[in-house]
## 1
Amino acid sequence: MKTLLLVGATGLVGLEVVRQALADRTIERVVALTRRPLELRHLRLENQVVDFDALPTDAPWWNVDAVICTLGTTMRQAGSRAAFGKVDHDYVLAVARRARAHGTEVFALTSSLGAKVSSGNFYLRTKGETERDLAAEGFASLTFVRPSLIGGKRENQRWVEALGLKVFALFAPALPRRYRIAPAERIAASLLAAVRTAQSGVRVVESEAI
Ligand SMILES: NC(=O)c1ccc[n+]([C@@H]2O[C@H](COP(=O)([O-])OP(=O)(O)OC[C@H]3O[C@@H](n4cnc5c(N)ncnc54)[C@H](OP(=O)(O)O)[C@@H]3O)[C@@H](O)[C@H]2O)c1
């Protein structure tokens, strides 16, 4: 894999993917699609600031070997189910379809522990629907990395998550591996490993394997 398109580069996991991808000299170009400019500058990093409601269809930078998507919002940030679904489902599919139309065969997504189309929980159901609809896009290699609670230092730490991380850390030894905190660096490494190896078919990396 020589060229990588990343969506979500301003986020906790996304920034870690950028760091690890730039440290890997075999990756010649990292294209980061963001809605606000990235502060990070690097010779092999190309930042495309876009409007996700009006993504271009024919930009040359869709032409990449692989896509990693770490895009996502919260119900609190989004404000409604429709607004949440637009980010965590519609934007992800819009990116996938454009890259696929330009010949990209490899895609990896940060999904979530418990993602399931039949889930009674709206968040997990949406993640499940995103996985299902991505699987219909015909990528040769498609990976869903499903973390439990994500660990790492956020710019604007959400207090519920900060509390959750503390509680999880406290009870970690008693928890099954699947429910322990998944550090952002390890999620990023799993996503990058998935697009590097590009195993054919659809793969799920559950939280305990991250
Ligand atoms: N937090 C957890 O514990 C947890 C657990 C399991 C799964 N996940 C999933 O893991 C993924 C990555 O999580 P994370 O913690 O790295 O997320 P994050 O730090 O909140 O980053 C989310 C990324 O999505 C972008 N984004 C959000 N709303 C957007 C919008 N309306 N338009 C364009 N871009 C938008 C953000 O851009 P801006 O910087 O411009 O806002 C940012 O780049 C998400 O899909 C999340 O649902 C999270």
## 2
Amino acid sequence: MLTAPTALLPLDAAPMLALLDLRSGDPLDAGLVVDRGSPHPEGGLLLSFAVPPGRHTVGLQLRPRDDAQPAWRRTRHLDLVTHIPADLDAAAVLAALAPLVARLDALDGPSTRVTVPPPAGERPPPALRVDVPAERRDEAPSLYDFGRVHVLDLASDCQQACRFCSARTRFSPVARFDEAAFRAIVASLERARADGYDVLRLSGLDPLTHPRVTDCVAEATRLGFDHVHIYSPSTRYDDPAFLDALIRALGPTGFTLHVPLYGGDGATHDRVSGTPGSFQRVLAGLGLLAERGLLSHVLFVTVVTADNAPALPALRRLTASYGRPVHVFLPFPATPDPRDRFFEVALRQSELVAPMLACEPPLGLSALLPCVRWAHERRTGQPAWSRGGVRTVAALDGNLFELGTYRRMDDGPQGGTFRIPVRRCPHASACALAELCPRAVYEAYAERFGTGELVPVDAAELSGWSG
Ligand code: SF4
């Protein structure tokens, strides 16, 4: 089919799919099936293609042309960047995408203009350091307090299907890791050390299922990283041989194991993780860590969603039995996609106060906006503000890579481009608790629930409150 150049090439899902004559479900060669278009979390438009029956997604990112950046192909005004899981036949995938490139090439004439939709939402306000008295400090350390952190995302499969997680729309599990990939990881660790990073964060889908993870950790130890944070579903600590190899690789390096628990019982945890048996595996791993005297390295994490909020008290009792703190996350959107899981699982902050207060001691109040806590206490007399932790850095967890001193392996010299747009609080200048507050909600939260919960706190009322 002959295609004439078009005046506008919008980096917007619906018009671009129409221009390319693509519909969800259309088959392409190499087993690809058109899935959707969505804003790419790091800029431009992402066209996604499913590869059934597995869990792979192939991505084709379209962004305004910049010859200084690497790209698979370029048209007159666009860069085309592919995201292909390493265990697919890349040549076949590229061949299947070639007709789309030809179509884009034909559409992109000398006077074609690429239009980029305005980003939804604003940049987050700066993170604020808060002087919190020891007795009010949140039980978990702030993620913003881990120093300069080099982030290594290992895209080996987690084998889970957590209800709140949209990570797979950003990257697919990879099953084949060759020596070149390992050398690239080691080179990134060396660069990070040379640039003064002394803390390493291992995350991804599940870094612990990566076949070279202990080698990566051993390299980090050899290079003198001070501390390694491991974010993982934590099911693999149930394997004694693996656990011992990991601990050997860590050697003298400090480490924190961020262990997710989504409920105090298997039914709740496994419902959130989407994976029968995952709770028992985490508990088995905790048992092995306890036997080896390593529980002091555990920091529990949880995500409070519509699925597990009522079960928070049971989670509190379970984590307390290990004597370890819990970092409570509220769900946040991992993508700007309207189908992000955030919209299915998030609850209003004001709905979370009661289950958090039902825990003894209260759990998770530090993750809520101060005005939400205060409004609950003022209305009910229950100590949603007077009790419960306060974080030492006021900022939203989802904005960590924008506001914290974190750098990911693939970030360019200008730093990270990953953004979660927010809506800033319009009342911050009039609010007595603004200095303890992120002063924003995620744009997705504002879209879903509005901003009616953001009510400025009156200084006189606050100082006169006996709690
Ligand atoms: S600054 Fe805004 S969001 Fe923060 S506590 Fe005050 S009213 Fe709430």
